[in-house]
Design a protein that fits this description.
Length: about 230
């Protein structure tokens, strides 16, 4: 059974040392090549995008200020070395960069789930980016910061969330345009309740794409509405 989020301990700190945190919880990683592994999640508040299919709108505004020390202390309560920092858009808050470094210095494996509209160069190179390229159906395609792609490391993962055949064809074009498959693990994920994952799987097989189908394991296990999973 999933361990629910711990109580978030508010902090009164120097703004440079604090972050607005929506929730901290321990669950099974549902996405990326780490899917199925126990993982501690730090969900930061605020986002600069408004994707049509967003499933974490509650993170746009809900959150409490916490010091980096308190965040690390709470994550250390969980029996895992795998940590994901997500949002919202986690790279919006400048204090996230020393937080990432702190986790890495502690020996953690750190995943950063980012929406692809913020410069990734300040992120510690030891962290693994799960880099989301926004497709047409998201309504945010014009926010893609293409200058980021040459900055990605070989172990960073590139994700496309697909809502339709149009998104799928567009994503294929980007695979070729940026030579993504030869450089990174590429994740294709269907919008929950909008594009059937089986249909997406059939398209991938028909076209012989060397991508990884992602099925959002946490939603299969606990449903689409449950928080803290």
């Amino acid at each position: 059974m999933v361990q629910k989020k711990s109580d978030i301990i508010p902090s009164v700190t120097d703004p440079k040392d604090s972050l607005t945190v929506n929730e901290i919880f321990f669950s099974i990683q549902g996405e990326s090549t780490r899917a199925g592994q126990p993982c501690a999640f730090v969900r930061l508040a605020h986002c600069n995008l408004r994707c049509t299919y967003c499933d974490t709108e509650y993170a746009f505004h809900e959150g409490q200020d916490m010091s980096r020390e308190n965040i690390r202390r709470q994550v250390d309560e969980y029996p895992t070395d795998l940590v994901e920092i997500t949002g919202g858009e986690p790279l919006l808050q400048s204090a996230v960069f020393p937080l990432i470094k702190g986790f890495l210095d502690d020996g953690k494996i750190v995943l950063i789930e980012t929406g692809g509209s913020i410069d990734v160069r300040p992120v510690d190179s030891r962290a693994i980016l799960i880099y989301d390229i926004k497709c047409p159906d998201s309504g945010m395609m014009d926010k893609n910061l293409w200058e980021n792609l040459p900055q990605l490391k070989p172990n960073d993962e590139v994700k496309f969330v697909l809502g339709s055949r149009r998104d799928y064809e567009w994503a294929k074009e980007q695979l070729d345009r940026w030579d993504l498959v030869s450089r990174h693990t590429v994740l294709f994920s269907s919008v929950w309740g909008q594009l059937d994952s089986r249909e997406l799987a059939e398209w991938v097989l028909q076209d012989g794409l060397q991508v990884r189908l992602q099925v959002q394991l946490h939603k299969i296990l606990w449903g689409n509405e449950v928080r803290g999973v």
